[in-house]
UniProtKB/TrEMBL annotation:
PROSITE patterns in alphabetical order: PROKAR_LIPOPROTEIN (PS51257)
Species the sequence originates in: Methylomonas methanica (strain DSM 25384 / MC09)
Residues in the signal sequence: 1-17
Keyword Signal found: yes
Organism taxonomic ancestry: Bacteria, Pseudomonadati, Pseudomonadota, Gammaproteobacteria, Methylococcales
Sorted UniProt keywords: Lipoprotein, Signal
Designated name of the protein: Outer membrane lipoprotein, Slp family
Length: 179
């Protein structure tokens, strides 16, 4: 009976595990940057890459879908970081149909695949060289909720909670959601 007491919670925890592919959550061995791929495309052709960023456009073709992504740094699990530090743009080519209503402009996405080639297109009147990735796995990240951001409106020694005496031993710097 004691075995079941440990087994059942373990099964529930396994069911709660995320469904992020190992290719997305772990960077490939030589972690190729976007700039290196553009500078030496012939050398890096066929190498695995894991890049992520913000979706700019989705174009469905007859057999595949092209997703234009503004590349951003990714964290250790492969999720693009929210920052203004863009690294460039790349094209992710996915086999089959990808719904542009779901994979819409502004959503965060990570793509894992093989570096294919360079493709030159125009952004406005300016030619731009895109590295192309033949995508094997991809992850669309959920939109951030308001709770993902810190609420700093009620922080500090002169905040309403500190002045009202809610802290029984005075304000303790650095505790809570403020910092």
């Amino acid at each position: 009976m004691k075995i079941f007491a440990f087994l059942i919670p373990g099964l529930f925890l396994c069911g709660c595990a995320g469904s992020i592919s190992q290719n997305i959550s772990q960077a490939p061995a030589p972690n190729l940057t976007l700039q290196d791929a553009v500078a030496q495309s012939e050398i890096h052709k066929g190498q695995p890459v894991r890049w992520g960023g913000t979706i700019l456009a989705v174009t469905n073709n007859a057999n595949d879908t092209e997703i234009e992504i503004l590349a951003e740094k990714v964290d250790s699990s492969g999720k693009p970081l929210y920052s203004n530090d863009a690294q460039g743009r790349f094209l992710a080519k996915v086999d089959g149909f990808v719904d542009p209503a779901i994979y819409s402009r502004g959503r965060k996405m990570t793509a894992y695949g093989l570096m294919d080639a360079l493709e030159t297109r125009k952004i406005g009147e300016k030619p731009y060289v895109y590295p192309v990735v033949k995508v094997q796995k991809y992850q669309l990240w959920p939109n951030p909720s308001e709770s993902d951001y810190a609420d700093n409106s009620n922080c500090g020694p002169f905040s309403l909670t500190a002045v009202a005496g809610i802290y029984p031993y005075g304000y303790r710097f650095g505790y809570g959601r403020c910092f």
